[in-house]
């Protein structure tokens, strides 16, 4: 078990960019694949982006591909989510999650991450995008 703490959430205007960070403690980040999820008001939590243990493989929700970028620094035990061209519909609580599992290249899908993935979760950080 590791502890995950998200930071960087704030209120921004549409079109702005924002970088969220997740700090991993209580274990080696190299043992975990990492992902970001988000939950908008009144909606279910949804998958946003994931990265494997070494950082050389990433996967994104289709509607976020090209606009969001996930990265990690295992030396610092951090995982970042850069969000560009933010839209009001990106308003949500963003959660960081860790799991020892990661999909193989041919098996990655949104459902893979939304179906019982994530052994460890952070408390979330609020992102609000105003028009």
Would you summarize the structure shown here?
The protein is mainly beta. Helices cover 4% and strands 46% of the residues. It is built from 1 helix and 11 strands, in the order βββββββββαββ.
What is the chain-wise order of helices and strands?
Answer: EEEEEEEEEHEE
Q: Which overall shape is indicated by the principal axes computed on the Cα atoms?
A: globular
Output the number of helix runs: 1
Structural class: mainly beta
- What's the overall average pLDDT, rounded? 95
Distance between the termini: 39 Å
What proportion of the residues form beta strands (DSSP E)? over 45%
**Poorly predicted tracts of residues:** none
Commentary on this structure:
- β7 and β8 form a beta hairpin.
- The chain has one helix and eleven strands; from the N terminus they run βββββββββαββ.
- The chain is mainly beta and 131 residues long.
- Strands 2, 4, 5, 6, 9, 10 and 11 form a seven-stranded mixed beta sheet that branches. A four-stranded antiparallel beta sheet has the order 1-3-8-7, with no helix packed on it.
- The radius of gyration is 14 Å and the shape is globular.
- The N and C termini lie far apart (39 Å).
């Amino acid at each position: 078990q590791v502890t995950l703490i998200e930071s960087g959430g704030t209120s921004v205007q549409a079109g702005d960019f924002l970088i969220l960070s997740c700090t991993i403690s209580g274990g080696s980040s190299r043992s975990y694949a990492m992902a970001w999820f988000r939950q908008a008001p009144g909606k279910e939590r949804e998958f946003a982006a994931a990265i494997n243990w070494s950082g050389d493989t990433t996967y994104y929700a289709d509607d976020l591909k090209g606009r969001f970028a996930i990265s990690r620094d295992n030396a610092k035990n951090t995982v970042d989510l850069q969000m560009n061209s933010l839209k009001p519909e990106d308003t949500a609580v963003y959660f960081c999650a860790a799991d020892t599992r990661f999909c193989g290249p041919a098996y990655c899908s949104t459902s893979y991450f939304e179906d019982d993935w994530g052994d460890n979760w952070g408390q979330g950080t609020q992102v609000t995008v105003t028009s």
